[in-house]
Amino acid sequence: MRGGNLLVRNGLIVTSEAMFKADVKVVDGKIVSIGEGLSNEGVDEVIDAKGMLVLPGVVDEHVHMREPGLEFKDDFTHGTKAAALGGVTTVIEQPNTLPPVEDSNTLLAKAKLLEGKAFVDFALYGVLYDSNVHNFEDMISSGAVGFKVFLGPTTGNIPPPSTGSLYHILSLSAKHNVTIAFHAEDNDLVNYFTNKVRSEGRVDAKAHEDARPPICEELAVIKLATIAKRTGGHAHILHLSSKEAVEVIKEGKVRGVKLTGETCPHYLLLSNEDYVKYGTLMKVNPPIRGLTHQQALWEGIKEGVIETIGSDHAPHTVEEKKKSVWEASSGFIGVQTLLPLTLDAALKGKLQLTLLPKLLSENPAKLFKLWPRKGVINVGSDGDLVIVDPNEEFTITQEWLISKNPVTPFIGWKVRGRIKHTILRGVPIVRDGILQNVSQGSWLKAIF
């Protein structure tokens, strides 16, 4: 779709390299100039960002918008409206919907279905398992930006592939320079520990953590690191939760293995001490663990071992989340709170502010071949910007959240840094914190 013509004046530009005062001019959706005192000639609107931060629009590489097939949990319209309010201008949608995105036909059908409902730009993963690896090239040719592989039990019951299939998948990854994203928990160990903990009669919320201990993640990542080393494929480990898994990735990087990692705000900001307060509300896979693991994740970010932060936006109904620890669904909404929570952490000194564009925008765009069109404030890139008042605090409320099921442990949290404007290809889709009725999201294909 055609982009807008806009000038953002007097903002403090935040990139992965530096922070500096400048204007940003967008014409026909593309950034054409960055500098001080730019002319407003040829633009339709000027936004004064004095005293505010201007960041690249967030690229959330990890969202489950639940459409098609699971719309009773949520849908793409709600999910992308929430993204816009949260400063997210591009989402990469996971493939475990109904039907799963397992071939070029389901990929193209999903893209067609979603494009008319998108308030932000979006890209699509395909899913891979034993019986559909032969569809790898067709899905890439049809527009998939990467693939998701589930090694452990998850929503949609996608079967984990055999070790031979993993070798084949990562060999194809190397051949085509395609990132493979993994839910890395060993399926056999998860089943073993789950049966063990359940047999003890436990029904406390923390039982879920003990049913999926760190060794489940560690063993899965070791296996992937070994295969990636031999094939040259790129394994991107999603929602890292444990110290042990971070150490495996760190060691793999030293050996030159194409191994990268993502974590999520809930692993950085919650710990197993919070089960008493939140119960099954904070149930997620892999589980939220102790403070030692949380500290290892923060260190992994600062050391560059963890290269992205995604939301793992995973809506479920209120009823599904209120069930017992063994029956309650795993996951909760997160696309709208991804930037507010991480920005608050940065403004409070938990990480450098310049790390945010790298973790939330630039690195995800690079991993899934959307860069330099997305993820960066550069001449020639899309005019995707988020303008934030760093001095204003606000409280995450149920009323602010856009979802059929606004269920998250972060309701009631007070954060610093209010999102004032979200701009997609030069068009304000959030203005002064208010969502605009502008459904202009487009389907993005990888730039190979």
Automatic annotation (TrEMBL):
Pfam families: Amidohydro_1 (PF01979). The keyword Metal-binding applies. Residues 53-427 form the Amidohydrolase-related domain. One of its GO terms (biological process) is purine nucleobase catabolic process. Its cofactor is Zn(2+). One of its GO terms (molecular function) is allantoinase activity. InterPro entries: Allantoinase, Amidohydro-rel, DHOase/Allantoinase_Hydrolase, Dihydroorotase_CS, Metal-dep_hydrolase_composite, Metal_Hydrolase. PROSITE patterns: DIHYDROOROTASE_2. Pathway: Nitrogen metabolism; (S)-allantoin degradation; allantoate from (S)-allantoin: step 1/1. Its EC number is 3.5.2.5. GO terms for cellular component: cytoplasm. Keywords: Hydrolase, Metal-binding, Zinc. Homotetramer. NCBIfam families: allantoinase (TIGR03178), pyrC_multi (TIGR00857). Belongs to the metallo-dependent hydrolases superfamily. Hydantoinase/dihydropyrimidinase family. Belongs to the metallo-dependent hydrolases superfamily. Allantoinase family. This is allantoinase. It comes from Zestosphaera tikiterensis.
